[in-house]
From TrEMBL:
Belongs to the HIBADH-related family. Keywords: NAD, Oxidoreductase. Residues 169-288 form the 3-hydroxyisobutyrate dehydrogenase-like NAD-binding domain. The keyword NAD applies. Pfam families: NAD_binding_11 (PF14833), NAD_binding_2 (PF03446). This is 2-hydroxy-3-oxopropionate reductase. NCBIfam families: tartro_sem_red.
Length: 297
């Protein structure tokens, strides 16, 4: 049976890539992976995947190549050049980039790949580490309908909400909007937490009742325990949200959209990073509010 499933090459086995690739292995897919950290390759092999020694080796026989790396420079580094995906994947392969990068990088990649007979989808995700592990990610896709239809069974193993948003780059544009909403939402929650604590209210009780009303959100539900326990172990690092706020600020400027609140939150994320908190979860925006309020850090 598994012979009927496309062979998958997975490049980038980080916080998101590892659990996502493992979900594909569990679903019966043949997954060959490459990443820079040896222990991540060992983890893939232990889960039943195949560890490759290079990108070229990973993609050579793949029907579908999936990439999940931090930002545009890394996507360019793995896609282009003699050792990259485009030179080494077979003609007719489908390249699905699930990284969160600039819409323009996705458009350029699709154009370059077309010359090699390789089809491309940009398919960034939302849902963080928990969403990746539970396979309930939201997947926003840019590209051709036919390629999207072909990729759908793979997406259905990885996520819950799967939407073709338009041509190449559209997935990244929607992801940028997603990151804007998430950052502003976390910031609002963080301000509420400091306000509630300084007022002497039982924080757990307050967040429970807020979560049940119009102020409730997926952000509040997912990050409540981070706030309560001051647990900022990264599900999604401030460093990456900083990158994403740069993408949305820049893209909005290019299309003539004003993001006044987004701009402020982008600066708060940047300040947190400047203070050495870049490796913490984005719920650590709470620390920025605490610093401003003279509350506990």
């Amino acid at each position: 049976m598994s012979n009927a499933l496309p062979k998958i090459a997975w490049i980038g086995l980080g916080i998101m890539g590892s659990p996502m690739s493992e979900n594909l292995i569990k679903a019966g897919y043949d997954v060959t992976g490459f990443t820079l950290e040896r222990e991540k390759l060992d983890r893939l092999a232990a889960a039943g995947g195949t560890a490759a020694g290079s990108i070229a080796e990973a993609v050579r026989d793949a029907d579908v190549v999936i990439t999940m790396v931090p930002a545009s420079p890394q996507v360019e580094a793995i896609a282009y050049g003699p050792d990259g995906i485009l030179e080494n994947a077979g003609s007719g392969a489908l390249l699905i980039d699930m990284s969160s990068i600039t819409p323009q990088t996705s458009v350029d990649l699709a154009k370059a790949a077309k010359d090699k007979g390789i089809r491309v989808l940009d398919a960034p995700v939302s849902g963080g580490e928990a969403g990746a592990i539970e396979a309930v990610l939201s997947i926003m896709v840019g590209g051709e309908q036919a390629d999207f239809d072909q990729a759908r069974p793979v997406f259905e193993v990885l996520g819950k909400t799967i939407v073709l948003c338009g041509p190449h780059g559209s997935g990244q544009t929607v992801k940028a909007a997603n990151q804007l909403i998430v950052a502003v939402n976390i910031q609002a929650c963080a301000e509420a937490v400091v306000f509630l604590e300084k007022s002497g209210v039982d924080l757990k009780a307050a967040l429970d009742v807020l979560g049940g009303g119009l102020a409730g959100s997926t952000v509040l539900t997912r990050k409540k325990d981070n706030f309560l326990g001051r647990d900022f172990k990264p599900g999604f690092r401030i460093d990456l949200h900083h990158k994403d706020m740069g993408i949305v600020t820049d893209a909005a400027r290019n299309v003539g959209a004003a993001l006044p609140v987004g701009a402020v939150v982008a600066q708060l994320v940047a300040s947190l990073r400047a203070q050495g908190d870049g490796g913490l979860d984005h719920s650590a925006l709470l620390r920025a509010v605490e610093r401003l309020s003279g509350a506990r850090i």
